Amino acid sequence: MEEQIQRKDIRALTLDQLRDFFVMKGDKAFRGNQVYEWLWQKSAHSFETMTNISKETRNLLTSNFVINHIKVDQIQRSEDGTIKNAVRLHDDLVVESVLIPTRTRTTACVSSQVGCSLDCHFCATARLKRMRNLNPDEIFDQVVAIDNESRLYFNRPLSNIVFMGMGEPLMNYNNVLKAIEKITSKEGLGMSPRRITVSTSGVPKMIKKMADEQVKFNLAVSLHSAVDEIRTSIMPFNATFPLVDLREALQYWYSKTKSRITYEYVVWKGINDTQSDADALVDFCRFAPSKVNLIEYNPIDDDRFQQANEKAIMMYVKTLGKKGITATVRRSRGKDIDAACGQLANKS
């Protein structure tokens, strides 16, 4: 075990660093390209599987590096076809990821942290302390595992990725962007960034940073109230990142990217189910093109949060529609296996 700790995870190396390693060892630089392809395009779990590389070179790699690949410990299948993976990391910590199938596409919902940095009262993951950020390769591996499952169970490749699993992606900014770079690059999975959505509870500074870096993926904001007092009562970090700052950051995002913003919004009975709540949401949406996903609430054993009735949901749809704002009611998938939004809590 001590020897393994001393060896570096090879996937932490860039292609240039890998090429330099082989040159330093007296080999050709292109050997690094071969290994890099095995690591990212073919998602090799071990050096022994790299069959076009000599045994001597594989032994060299084994003596210098490890591949800290994830392991899917447990798979749960929902009645609606949703699949939840309990993913064991190299240090024995566990996160969860979800495959969400529809008739026309398959979406991977991936985690970015072990636990979560934020404190949303309605989310089961937020009850877990943040233990650490996931590395880029650990995020990448979740996507590969779900792509494999999509091909196995649904006979089609993965079509979309959402960063809506465990953790706040913008609190693990660098690793999330490195993972997306690998997922979208020709050297990795070659997926279009337009098929990727990063969901944040709202970290203004990092939203502006994404805008400055001209990222090509989609942005979703977990909003749930456009009234500061209400939002702070259910999402206490809103006291630090108030709506005025979030709105300014999102205005900046749109001015830089011209990319429409998606708001995720749960309507709860007695919390945000009045006409004034809906009017406040309309006001918040006006500054930039946006759409609203009204998401069905998934209980987490907290009596304070109860799904609003259908009348309140339709009131939101009507209020938003009158102002030309697209509103879609999203029914949850995978509730019977605790795989729906807000339910990921490592019960396994």
Tag the structure with descriptive keywords.
348 residues; alpha/beta; DNA polymerase, domain 1; TIM Barrel; 2 domains; ten-stranded mixed beta sheet; two-stranded parallel ribbon; 14 strands; elongated
The fraction of residues assigned to DSSP E strands is: 15-25%
SSE run: HEHHHEEEEEEEHEHEHEHHEHEHE
Q: Looking at this structure, what is the CATH superfamily of the largest domain?
A: Aldolase class I
Quantity of strands, as a count: 14
Descriptive notes:
The structure is a single chain. A hairpin with a 5-residue loop joins β4 and β5. This protein starts with a helix and ends in an 18-residue tail after the last strand. α2 (15-24) packs across α3 (30-40), α5 (136-154) packs across α6 and α7 runs parallel beside α9 (243-257). The chain has 11 helices and 14 strands. It has helices at 2-6, 15-24, 30-40, 55-64, 136-154, 173-184, 204-212, 228-234, 243-257, 275-285, 310-322; strands spanning 8-9, 65-66, 71-77, 83-88, 94-101, 106-109, 113-114, 132-133, 160-163, 196-200, 218-222, 261-265, 290-295, 326-330. The protein has a 10-stranded mixed sheet, covered by helices on one side. A two-stranded parallel ribbon has the order 1-2. A two-stranded antiparallel sheet has the order 7-8. The chain folds into 2 domains: 2-66, DNA polymerase, domain 1 (Orthogonal Bundle), CATH 1.10.150.530; 71-337, Alpha-Beta Barrel (TIM Barrel), CATH 3.20.20. With 348 residues, the chain is of the alpha/beta class. The model has no long low-confidence stretch (mean pLDDT 91). 35% of the residues lie in helices and 18% in strands. It is elongated and about 70 Å long. The longest helix has 19 residues, at 136-154.
